[in-house]
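Hey team,

Sharing the Glycosyltransferase family 2 protein run so nobody has to redo it. Sequence (468 residues) first:
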Amino acid sequence: MTTFLVAFAVAFNYFIGIYYGIVNLIYTAFLATALGAILRHVERIKYSAAGDLRMSPETPPISVLIPAYNEQVTINAAVKSALSMNYPFFDVIIINDGSTDGTLKELIDVYDLMKIDLVYRDVIKTKAVRGFYYNPQVPNLMVIDKERGGKADALNSGVNMCQSPYFCSVDADSVLERDALLRLISPVLESTVPVIACGGVVRTLNGATIKDGVIERIGLPKSVLAMFQIVEYLRAFLFGRVGLDSVNAILILSGAFSLFNKASVIEVGGYSLNNVTEDMELIVRLHRHNAKNRRQYRIRFISDPICWTEVPETFKMLGRQRRRWHLGLLQSILQHKSLVFNPAYGRLGMFVMPYYLFVEVLSPVVEVIGYLVVVLSYLIGIISVEFFLLFLTLAIFYGTLLSTAGVFLEELTYRRYPEWSHMFKLLLFGFLENFGYRQLNSIWRVQAIFKYVVGQREWEYVRRRRES
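Structure output:
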């Protein structure tokens, strides 16, 4: 029995080493691809036709959809931010999803709204709509009041009501930069292949100063947890998703701010009510539908920082958020598991879905078990010092390289954090996050997998800082 356990431990250690080696090679390829893509994108921005789009009658209208459930504290900032967009033709639709606080009253009072009669076309089936609110003095704002159905159901109501060919889903705690819609529609209009969805970089709002829905000053937060998340977002957005975009392999666009072709979304049945991350599941379904029908299409990600959103500053709320994200990822992959290694779906079946399953979904399990097995194996003398150091390099120190690379990409390109002290502080946290914070995230993600296995798949509510 002892011989078998030793042999198993040795084999598992080799598996861990090979796994991390392959994953780090993939990340290196993403990093190299992202660096070139971001530098090219920054160069294009210098000669961007954004000014022409702002004045052109050919620029397509966009509806901004903001689902709101008990958002009395944050809803005004979100609405002001959305209404201040520098875009020629847009409207803002707030969907009050059965709020039990004063969200609806706040909107009615601030914008002097009155109840009106409109025909509601239930193209995508939703919970009952109770009324519509409007003020002719604010012609591009409408509020839908409906029974509680969840975020996906609220967004489906907004899709039913919007008259534009494109819509943007925006979280009620998000603040958008004024040119956000122009930046997001640009790759759609420039592409020779139909772009059915497009997302951009999301940054952390914590530490910024906001006035009338506009960011006046960008700064770094005092919260250590928020600092770790800034570095994490830089890494995830500035090379992870940019690298995946280069091969049309994007399965995750942030629900905080994403653009969709309305007809494409209606064609696949709208947002699913059976997933805690409805935005990701919709992206997978859009990929599947278009790949199955052999259509040429793109789902894009652009590296412009266009949306700012609050991040949790307590371990309890952060744990809830990360468990929900990973649970939604797992649900989305398993709901479409027939795509994995299915050659009929081309790149989607043979690369995209396997990557998300074996790297994104299962990596926290490999990481948590790997730490336990490798450290224990080293302590009892099963593995050598050289192998142990190789493991630490692949599992921890390479992550440090990727985090610092994300910070340097930010400094080379957009520099949203203007002071040199900001860069040094971000580099410090990029180093420190690999010693505790990243491992804690892996534990939360393993908990999400356990919750899925035992059937606990409910939405975990995350209380925002401004609600505390």
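The first strand starts at residue 62 and ends at 68.

Ping me if you want the raw files.
A.
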